[in-house]
Amino acid sequence: MRLRLTGRGLAGVGLELLHHPPALLGGLIVLLYILAALFAPAIAPHGIDESQLSQRLAAPAWLGGGYVLGGDPVGRDLLSRIIYGARVSIAIGALTTLFSAVTGVVLCAVAAYYRGPLDAVL
């Protein structure tokens, strides 16, 4: 099943995505990741710097540990740190994409304006 982007605008793309389960699943995962980053203080079970030395290198909860994904070497909850880390990852990805887009537009504008050898190099 191929994803076909037709000239029907955003609604057409949305309809095509509904009929393409892998794309829909990927979009859902990205959406959940963004929502987790936005609402990190509300959904993280512990604070990012809360430390309990009794939970140092603790096993995950399903193996008898105190934290859902276990503890780090300082006794902090790994799940909370992953949820808060999503904020940094999304910010870096967004800034990198923005920087690349601005650089590309500027270089394309320079190439279109000056043409000739500079256009060929760029």
* Count, helices: 5
What Rg is obtained from the alpha carbons, in whole angstroms? Answer: 22 Å
User: Strand percentage, roughly?
Assistant: under 5%
pLDDT average, as an integer? 87
Q: Would you count the extended β strands for me?
A: 0
Write a structural description.
- The chain has 122 residues and is mainly α.
- The chain contains five helices and no strands.
- It has helices at residues 9-18, 21-38, 40-43, 78-114, 116-121.
- Helix 2 crosses helix 4 (78-114).
- The longest helix has 37 residues, at 78-114.
- The protein is elongated and about 70 Å long.
- It starts with 8 loop residues before the first helix and ends with a helix.
In short:
This protein has 122 residues and is an all-alpha fold.
Give the tags.
61% helix, 122 residues, elongated, 5 helices
How is the topology of this model organized?
Layout: H1 9-18, H2 21-38, H3 40-43, H4 78-114, H5 116-121
